[in-house]
Amino acid sequence: MLDTPLRLSPSAVTRSGSCPRYRALKARPAKGRANGGRRSGTFRETFGLGPLGKVLDLVEFDGLDTEAALSRWRGSPSRDRHPALVRWTEHAVRQYLDAQTNGMRADPVLQPVSRTWARRVDRPLDGLPEPHEEIVYGRRYAGGCVRELRLTRYQGVEGRPRDEAEIALAAAVVAAGGPVLGSRWSTGPLLIGRHERPERVRIVEVGCLDGSSNVLFDDTAEAAFAAYEEHALGRVLEVATGEALRPGTDCGRCPIIASCPAVPSVPGLLGIDAGTGPRRIWSVTTSRQYHTCAPIPYFHDLNLPRDATREESGSTIRGRLVHAEIEARHARVPPRACTADDPAAGAAKATAEEPTVKSVAEDLETRLRHQMLGDHSFVCPMRHAGTTTGVDIVPEHQVVTYDPSANVAVIAKIDLLYRIGGNWRLREIKTNRHLYEGDLLQRYEQIALAVLLSAEGALPGGRGGCRVELERLSATGPVLTEFDATDPELVQAAREVVQSAVARWHSDETLATSPGKACRDCGFIRWCPDARTDVKTDLRPRADT
User: What is the pLDDT of residues 295-308, one digit of tens each?
Assistant: First the structure.
């Protein structure tokens, strides 16, 4: 168990796929911080709701009206503000204030509270003898023996899943917390002021996309403590004592990545010397988004709300459904080979209620999708497994590799990692209406990255010990291509592809937009002031996914 002071917020105890060890470290501010963000010359704001709080402070504590507050914020010196973040912030501020005016309880009248609330829990927990602190972040209000915490959300709140542990911990802190008198980011014990216990506690979430609101908790302080005992206490212990390692996006912020046994370290992997630059995350998806339009990966990092329907096409839907169905079949226990007459195991079930009246294009896509699933059975990796012992099959496996020279965590989500006998193989599956006959490493950066990771020993089997496969499902049948990661020429070609893809992204200080055809399918067009609104969405199937 870690021995530094423990501090938890409601978001720390939400169920997620994050790394338990990282969550435990993050809950200890003295150990859980790593340098992050962007290079010094680019936009440094990494929290898409951060500017919202700054503008609301001007409204609630400086007495400015909405437009005056936004004007002062826009006029303050800063290099942090991408124009899309400015436009989103303007929208979020107005929606939050509209929700406050139109959709929230007005009795009693509540006044904004400037100081963060926190409490110290001196009672030792089973397996956690140390005292710990609990803190809430959000907008705080009080009046008439009522305390209210408003949690801001990027999207609307309708249909948003509840997490009872998050709600219960927030309610307990609102009920018993005092004002934090020093810095709320202190790595040492917080200085917490005196307080009076409220008679009533409210937790409200506010959707900054549409001004929606939802009351999550509205009850007495005693009820808040009871909810904490029932829903949050066990999760607090779980987070505080987490030791399991689960590589993923958390690696981009984790202070122990360089020594983590679950993350191979490969100096020079990306051919970049970052010096003292901040930690960053790169994946093939990052590369694809960046080369479509440079700021798109940054918009994703900010969690700006996006219109996913703009990014859809017949081919992307087909690719997603085929991948999900194959993943579901490969996850069956015990594992077995896919067959042409397999019943729908996963994604195909979701299409059972599709409208019976379809356009010609939709009908063609449906038939092509079912054909591809049937064709996969001819090249399914399990077809030769038979009774072989030592069979491992891991669909949608995530691999993280760290390049300390570039200070970049490389994330690769592998369609299928499997071992039959003593031989490890990695397979990527692509659904293409027409087969591409050119340079496959250039066309599919996932394959180039997989070859490079295998050659560097970042995959099971040691250096070059994991063979790489590309399965292409097309209108003319399946094609399976193998790549030998022990072939020096192939490895060098793969290295050049990967390093070329990373270099421009890593050095870009401006994130200039590329208005034009890219706007047609961009989910962030609403926030981008450079977007071409005269470019219509093309719903025709695209060639490849």
Answer: 999 999 999 999 98
